[in-house]
Prior knowledge:
Elements: H1 3-21, H2 23-42, H3 47-62, H4 69-91, H5 96-161, H6 173-204
Helix pairs in contact: 2-5, 3-5, 4-5, 4-6, 5-6
Amino acid sequence: MKKGRVLKLWHFGEMFEFFKKNNLLMILTLFFIGGFCFGIYFCSKETGLFDFSKRYIADYISNRTGYSFISVLFRSFFSSMLFIAVCFISGSSMLGIILVPFICSAKGLLLGTIAANLYIGNSLNGIAFYAVLILPSAVISVIAIILASKESIWFSLLLARLTFPSTSPKNLSFDFKNYCVKYLSISAICFASALLDAILSVNFLKSFNI
């Protein structure tokens, strides 16, 4: 067997193991992609989605125009943490198994409708605005939401397992502390997203006329 083919098979094997070990992450990513595609396709067809994304873009610009770097940073951070907080609360109940994947879809829907609205209203200038100002920090925040969703689903499954008659009683204090610590790490990722958002907004927002 040729060396190049062996390397290809080896890389394929690595990818297969990654998908096998991270199937939940892959499923949550598909939920996000589905929401994103839905938002792009239906933004121009659904008046409600179009108007909502238009208001969101207007608020996005107004919340970053004329404000200091620190103000933009914390506004962006608390905005990103809204999705994380919903994931955390959902994961604290058995309903999180059902609800959490749709939080990923909601984030995808939001980003998809924003992209479509900017393209419809501003053509290439809108796409450039999206690519420079919104997309970089959004990628980081999406990673945080998907990781948070994974932790919420696992904790929800742990709670659901305790309802089975065959499951012995268990003290969840350690598991809940671990759950909270992981969310603190995820919050740090959100802060990094907000930091990038603030840097880009302060330096490049004035360059666009949206």
